[in-house]
Design goal:
mainly alpha
Length: about 160
């Protein structure tokens, strides 16, 4: 009887976690963060040298330029995230004043909004990982070319 109760409690915990508003954004952010670690690993393995031969006009080899680019991208993502969530708060305030409070969970739990939040958070985490490892002595490269290229693509998406 006890194992049934424990199993039921685990199932309820599972349902609480997966139905939470923060579940999908956290999952997406962790996946993008793992992508950052993997791209740094590929840069350490020398994959970025092949990339510089094929698209040299999109690549910078100067660590200061790369750090400046990553700083600008991170600041832009923070600004975009703040603006987006300010608009969401305005919409939620107007909706709570004009409609019944039962409408709010439907607005908040929309999967599209959770996807956007996860992409914002994951991109910022990715940018910070790449920024920390750019120009450092911990690797045998100065500029993680592939990681910076992926950072630009993430910000553009």
């Amino acid at each position: 009887m006890r194992w049934i109760l424990e199993r039921f409690q685990l199932y309820t915990l599972y349902l609480k976690v997966t139905s939470s508003i923060a579940f999908f954004p956290t999952l997406i952010a962790l996946l993008i963060f793992a992508l950052g670690l993997f791209s740094m690993y590929l840069d350490a393995r020398g994959l970025s040298y092949d990339l510089t031969e094929h698209i040299p006009y999109l690549i910078t080899r100067n660590p200061e330029t790369a750090r400046s680019l990553l700083s600008s991208l991170t600041g832009g993502m923070f600004s975009l995230m703040v603006f987006s969530f300010s608009m969401v708060m305005v919409v939620l305030t107007v909706a709570s004043n004009n409609y019944t409070p039962r409408v709010l969970p439907g607005l908040i739990s929309t999967k599209r909004h959770q996807l956007v939040l996860g992409l914002y958070l994951g991109t910022i985490g990715y940018l910070l990982i790449v920024h920390i490892n750019t120009g450092g002595e911990s690797f045998d490269f100065e500029v993680p070319v592939l990681s910076i290229f992926l950072a630009i693509l993430l910000v553009l998406s």
